[in-house]
Amino acid sequence: MSITSLIMHASPLVQGVMLFLVLLSIISWTIIIQHGRYLKRCRKEADAFEDRFWGSSDLNTLYHGCAGNRDQSAMEKIFVAGFKEFARMHRDGVKNKDTLMDGTYRAMKVSCSRELEELENHLPTLATIGSISPYIGLFGTVWGIMSAFIALSAVKNATLAMVAPPIAEALIATAMGLFAAIPAVLFYNRYVVKVDKLENQYLNFIDEFSTILNRNTAANAEKTDKKGQPS
Asked: Do 69 and 80 contact (CB within 8 A), yes or no?
């Protein structure tokens, strides 16, 4: 009585449940591997851009370098969106510092929200697989055991050798449901933590960049006021 033979001799409906759970497991592991690599790359790109940002002495040069890059990282897109909006409002003659900074901050927040949507992509699928797989497996088990007892009801003298195989093949469905659910839940929780860390890194960068722009705007306004004063 091997696992393979039990699966092959299971009822069609239980076999269908098992096949569906195998499909869910394949989808789950595909998302786990691909999204894990994607989050790892995003973290490296964010760290690399922060090093470039703090090591750069000219934000204009950094902006043109990022804007000309076709394969921008998430943090580069946030920086480009903020700097572009800041420069556009300057060209439009916006003088009020609060209005200028509010528009810049909103542009970066919108860009950040778009990047977070990419980071959270497929995570709901993992959560769904993790939550429904045990119940699908349990459905296959209940159906298999029910079918086994119905078949045994027609036998006068039921022995353990007759009861064990159908119950065992039904329980395999529950085991496969857990096999699909446990990795999905485990990596979902892990990836949610990684997404939260990246979100905090993006938001911290937005605040730091906004502070720099605010400081530069205030300094330029002070210089303009001093030039306009009579000597």
From this structure: no
Distance, CA of 52 to CA of 126 (rounded, Å):
35
Q: What CA–CA distance (Å, rounded) separates 145 from 197?
A: 46
pLDDT tens by residue, the chain, 231 residues: 566 766 666 678 888 888 999 999 999 999 999 999 999 999 999 999 999 999 888 888 888 888 888 888 999 999 999 999 998 988 888 778 888 889 999 999 999 999 999 999 899 999 999 999 999 999 888 888 887 777 777 666 666 666 677 777 778 888 889 999 999 999 999 999 999 999 999 999 999 999 988 888 777 666 655 555 544
Tokens of 138: 């349990």
Strands (E), 88-170: none
Token pair in block for residue 200: 């905090």
Phi first, then psi, for residue 176 (nearest 5°) are: -70, -35
Q: Is 226 exposed, middle or buried (0-12, 13-18, 19+ CB in 10 A)?
A: exposed
Compute CA distances 71 → 14, 39, 45, 77, whole Å: 47, 16, 11, 10
Cα–Cα distance, 119 to 106 (Å, whole number): 20
How far apart are the C-alpha atoms of 198 and 80, rounded to whole Å? 18
DSSP class of 158: -
Residue 76 contacts residue 205 (beta carbons within 8 Å): no
